[in-house]
Amino acid sequence: MHHKKLWFSFVLTMVLAVILSACSSGSKEASGDSGESDDGTVTLRMTWWGSQSRHDQTQEIIKKFEEENPDIKIDAEFTGWDGYFEKMAAQAAGNNLPDIMQQNFGEYLTQYADKNLLTDLTPYVEDGTIDVDGVSDTVMKSGKKNGKLLGIPTGTNALAAFYNKDMLDKSGVTIPESGEWTWDDYMQISEKVHAKTGKYGTRLMDPTVAFEYYLRENGKKLFNEDGSALGYEDDQLMVDYFNMNKELVEKGAAPGYEVIQQIKGVEDELITRGEAAFDLRWSNQATALDSASNGKNIQMTLMPGENNDQGMYLKPAMLWSISKNSKHKDEAAKFINFFTNNIEVYKIAGSDRGVPIKEEIREEMKSDLSDTDKKVYEYIDKVTKHSSPIDSNYPPQASEIMASLQKIDELVMYEELTPEQGAKQFRDESERILSR
Amino acid sequence: MLPEKDDLNKVQQTQPPTRHTKQKKAGGSPSGKPLKTGNNNVAGYLFISPFLIGFLGLTLFPILYSLYLSFTDFDLMGTPHWIGLDNYVRMFTNDPMYWKAMKVTFFYAGIAVPFRLVFALLVALALNKVVEMVGLYRTLLYLPSVVGGSIAVSIMWRQLFGNDGAVNSILSMLGFPTHSWLGDPDTAIWTLILLYGWQFGSSMLIFLAGLRNIPKTYYEASSVDGAGPIRQFFIITLPLLTPVILFNTIMQVIQGFMAFTPSFVVTNGGPVNSTLLYVLYMYRRAFEYFDMGYASAMAWVMLVIIAIFTALIFKSSEHWVHYESDSK
């Protein structure tokens, strides 16, 4: 008898559970998920990553958009870069991605394209909801994957060698105006600055970006055409790359990982604190660098390398995407159109999300640019003339391979592996990951 | 309610042991107690149903589902495909990072857990002696554990042990050489162990309660016989405290294996994966590499490991845990 009762209660509980969960999901569908309230306004969820200055700017832009479109409200969710894509993955699993999502070119776009999580924006461009007239084909191409347009670039970006001109002057060295300088020049200048000022000459760059550039500059790619294997055969390239960095650290011209690992944002970068002369990173970070560096004379030039024309490329700083599960794709497209075409947006955001992709906006902006933005615009102009197309042949496993590259770079710099062992281990691990 | 009454009758007819109640009822018990008892049970289950629903929906179902997922290639979004034991095979034969994470976790748990337990016991002993303002001290010492699992403490730790952090400032003020605590693969894990030990509050409170339960008369009697405080500790305090030690050890071993926040926030697994705790690697597999099937398999292996450790500790407890009731 006891048994039976227990079962009865159990069944009762289960029934209740089902009813309750049905209720809650039902009401969610009715209000929360669809984001449509009684007075007809639509609420969009939007996410991005970035620095504090970007958060402030973006919220200002959202406010402008809401003023122009009183029937659309935007719920903003923003974080730093760390953790952004983990959060998105969890939301994707719950079929709950935001309507508008800041997306990253490369391994992430591939991953999301592969899992069919993003809306094809082609129809919105074709019917004019998103106006991209005058945007160059190469820029638009960077948002495409598997024949679908999955993201509209927020702006154009390029790798840049930032340098503290005052520090170089003090050390009696100059960089050729033309941007023609080799890795040897880069090392010599770094060492000279270190010898003269006692500060660091440079800071090691994120290997996932730097090594890819190094390969391109040597006429190779990180991945082969169909993304099924590494795109270079000779491990000596990686060995050379490691040796160069090791030499810089050994001579004291660059800090090791124990220093750079502590840096938690542009605000405490070595170059912003005046403790290093060079910093190789993305051009759109000029805004954050300049605002954090208290008026240091920071300039930018092409990345070093014998063939830097071949190594340099224009990259979408990031992309605006609409998730597949969004119920308000039209409104989301409207926002992307606003961001791409409204000059006010770039007056607020500057070049923080890259240089505007639309020619007319770039022209219109030119008259009243801030010093930093002027610098970045000129730089992007220069890169446009000295670059080759971006590599978009990333396999879906690229993020894991990048993590492996990062780890091996650390192991080599901590001298737990020789450069030769590191290069071999990277090849082995990549093959293992790609063959899975 | 009608079907239930029928059920009751049926049961009563077929199961002699329940006769007793039936006869009572048949005998015309005015209170009608038996039936009411039945109703009360239902009401009881209804009252605990919020917990039951939560347990079934948020604990039991996810656990079983993850067991299922561990045999699939689930990538968080698509449909899971059954791949049998592939995840487990890959884990043990084809993933060096997995073994690295396992090694780090065993090292961490193996040192941090005893460290925390000893530390908690020492503080509990000290607090047991303090009479004045014991409440205040207890609260203060417990505080790190209240905010313990939180991100805030981890961030503070990162600042303390950073290159320009307080620890290095103090060292250089005292004329010692500074060190890159979090940047050196040899020391980074130790900062996390220290952080774990520092959050000793909850075990300390449990020890303290255990200490308070030891009758004063034992100490009085032993001091009459001439035992000093150290001898008293070993012949009275420690043996009588063993049940509490057992409890704390088991809880802490479980916690130690499942540590995540410190390595995630303070060091993010670096440098060179020297602080890549098991759960952090699991999290990365699940949410960075969209490898949920594999992460589920990892979770189940960890469950088995913890179960084995708990069982071993229980088994060993026969030899060292002393219950007062046993000796009577």
TrEMBL record, chain A:
InterPro entries: Bact_solute-bd_prot1 (IPR050490), SBP (IPR006059)
Keyword terms: Signal
Superkingdom in the source lineage: Bacteria
A Pfam family assignment: SBP_bac_1
UniProt keyword Transferase present: no
Keyword match Chloroplast: no
Signal peptide: 1-30
Stated name of the protein: Sugar ABC transporter substrate-binding protein
Source species: Halobacillus salinarum
Lineage of producing organism: Bacteria, Bacillati, Bacillota, Bacilli, Bacillales
UniProtKB/TrEMBL annotation, chain B:
Sorted UniProt keywords: Cell membrane, Membrane, Transmembrane, Transmembrane helix, Transport
Stretches assigned to the ABC transmembrane type-1 domain: 102-313
Superkingdom per UniProt: Bacteria
Membrane topology label: Multi-pass membrane protein
Keyword Transport found: yes
Residue intervals passing through the bilayer: 42-68, 106-127, 139-157, 188-211, 232-254, 260-281, 293-314
Subcellular location: Cell membrane
Pfam family, one: BPD_transp_1
Region (Disordered): 1-35
Ranges in coiled-coil conformation: none
InterPro entries: ABC_transporter_permease, MetI-like, MetI-like_sf
Family: Belongs to the binding-protein-dependent transport system permease family.
UniProt name for this protein: Sugar ABC transporter permease
Provenance organism: Halobacillus salinarum
UniProt lineage: Bacteria, Bacillati, Bacillota, Bacilli, Bacillales
